[in-house]
Each structure stands twice: as C-alpha cells, then as structure tokens.
Write a structure and sequence with these properties.
Elements lengths: L1 H15 L26 H7 L12 H12 L16
Length: 89
Amino acid sequence: MKEKGLEFIRTLDRIAGLNQEYVVKIDEDTNEKYGYLPYERPTELYIRSGLIVLDKPPGPTSHEVVAWVKKMFGLEKAGHGGTLEPSPM
C-alpha cells in the first residue's frame, strides 16, 4: 500500500507541475481495515461520509435542497453548513 500512496502523491505533484523528492522514513504498510487511499475509496463511502459542495440556485430554501439531496442519495441524515443566499439583482 505504501508504494501506491507515494505514487498517488507523485501524481498530485505532476498535476500541480511540481517535481518533489520524498524521503520515506518508515517502510511499513498500513492495515487496510483503517481506511482507503483516495482513489481506491468506494463511491458509497464518499456519499455516506463526505461533503457535497453545492451552488444553491435562487428560489428553494437550503432546507429544501438538503431534502432533495437526501432523497437523491437515499440518506437518512444530511445537513447544510450555512445559508448564503444570493444577493438580489
């Protein structure tokens, strides 16, 4: 797993246009029961334990949009982190 993790970091570097050198201090694998590498994480876990960044359109309330998201993804719990209403035009 450690090789995949370092490969993932190097991929991010390439995307960002960086060429960093990394020193691996501990040469051990992590037990997979403690988590996933981001690109191996099942979509279900992203939905169940994740964050959805949503640009709420004018009109529906934040609570209505949360209700729609819960229905679309079959969630029991969901919430919003604020109500930033668009300024009137």
